[in-house]
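Hi R.,

Here's the chain you asked about this morning:
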Amino acid sequence: MPGNFSAHTSLYSSASSFNVTLVVLYVTIVLVGLIGNSLVVAIVFKTRSMFTSTNILLANVAVADIVSLLWCPIPLIAGLCKVRISPETAHYLCKFFTSYSVTGLTVSVTYQSLVVLAVERYHAIVKPFSNTLMLTNHRMFCALLAIWIVAIICSLPGFIFSEYDEKLGRCLDPWTLEKAGTLRWIAITTLTASVFFFGALFYCYFQILRGIFVNKTVCSTEVASMRQSNLKDKRRLAIISLTVTVAYHLCYLPFLIFELYITFQSQLKILENYEELYKVYRIVGFIMYVNSMLNPFVYGFQSSNYRNNFRRLFFRGSPRVDVRMTSNFGQNPPSTVFSAEK
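And here is the predicted structure, written out as tokens:
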């Protein structure tokens, strides 16, 4: 089967305007994304008041984004460099570097972290007096460990089935145009997991938004002395948490839909439209990585606490940070983490 695609191998090694433009765009998002995500991690772990469950989850997403950004340009650049190496070395590099296996790992980490974040927000906002889903420090780190273990298990097919093809002279992973149709079960499993996670996210945020904006049940569960500004903080926090989830799906769904499309196309149809499919494959892959660059701006620097702590860390003499709303999240304060600007 791979031999039938040999005529199109030059698309991956050609210094065409399309490939060069992609390289420039990748370099841009990598530089911006690494700086932004590194700042989020530094702010969370160097500022005691920011070391809360929600912020730790967001820092976990930032770590996954950093790994994703470091790996994302490697497959594209490796194809353009045309470096001659032994098949054994190329096979090893294919497993861990020149395929999108690591991306599968980081995408899983991000998605699971967003689900845990949604559940945590649901608990803190809709059921603030229930201890069932409260993320204490111990539960938080257990959740992080579980997220990475599950992500590693889920990404194993990517590492196992990625292989260097000597005839084509490049790495083939389960998401390439050549192999997607032969590993259909991976796409179906990915779709099933995505639907399950999306259902959990939808339920949590539907309940949060309904409680805050529709039937006002969140307001009714608050203690009578809670200030109106705290209720506004909860609304802003719910919107920020929802925004990062929506941004993730907007960037991830095009790639998933495209993979499902080519998975169920015949080999002949893929060969007939290979050049166009190649361009779409590269574009939707790039869009997926854009999310890793956007995250710090979506959930980090919209928050006054992140901005204030950024100034405190890097600029001496900056105003003192207001930490009234950043108490230990393990104690389940009424509103946490993103002290929204007034």
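One quick note: The longest strand covers residues 163-165.

Cheers,
M.
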